[in-house]
TrEMBL record:
Coiled coil: none annotated. InterPro entries: HAD-like_sf (IPR036412), PGP-like_dom2 (IPR023198). It comes from Sulfitobacter profundi. Keywords: Hydrolase. It comes from the Bacteria. This is HAD family hydrolase. Pfam families: Hydrolase. One of its GO terms (molecular function) is hydrolase activity.
Length: 129
């Protein structure tokens, strides 16, 4: 077996892996009467995001998020207003990191790992980096 190089780079997804999407639950509770619809919406959002990426087309995560919110609303017979979509986009842009993210990333960086994220979200404000 050939010599293997040790892992030196760790790649992370951003949404849900690093950022806490449960902060979106109040919106889903208000719009659908059930906060758990968040999980259905997020699964669909990831599916459509991957589909767009694999087909070589780009759409900002917030635009996809709003479109998928409208689709889930249509599937459930719930009207999604422009204000609901705007609120979702605003909330997505301000999701906090999970509490353990910063200390864990610091430890990994101090251990010499190169840390990389892959996402189609807009850039994070400096305070999240």
């Amino acid at each position: 077996m050939p010599d293997q190089k040790p892992v030196s780079t760790i790649v992370f997804d951003v949404n849900e892996t690093l950022l806490d999407i449960t902060t979106l639950e109040p919106l889903f509770a208000r719009v659908f009467g059930d906060a758990s619809v968040l999980r259905e919406w997020f699964a669909e959002l990831i599916l459509y995001s991957q589909t767009m990426t694999l087909s070589g087309r780009y759409a900002p995560f917030g635009a996809l998020a709003g479109g998928v919110l409208q689709m889930v609303g249509a599937n459930k017979g719930v009207t999604i207003s422009d204000e609901d979509v705007a609120e979702l986009k605003s909330l997505i842009g301000s999701m906090p990191a999970h509490p353990d993210v910063a200390p864990a990333l610091r430890k990994l960086r101090e251990a010499g790992f190169r840390l990389v994220t892959l996402t189609n979200s807009p850039p994070l404000p400096r305070r999240h980096r």
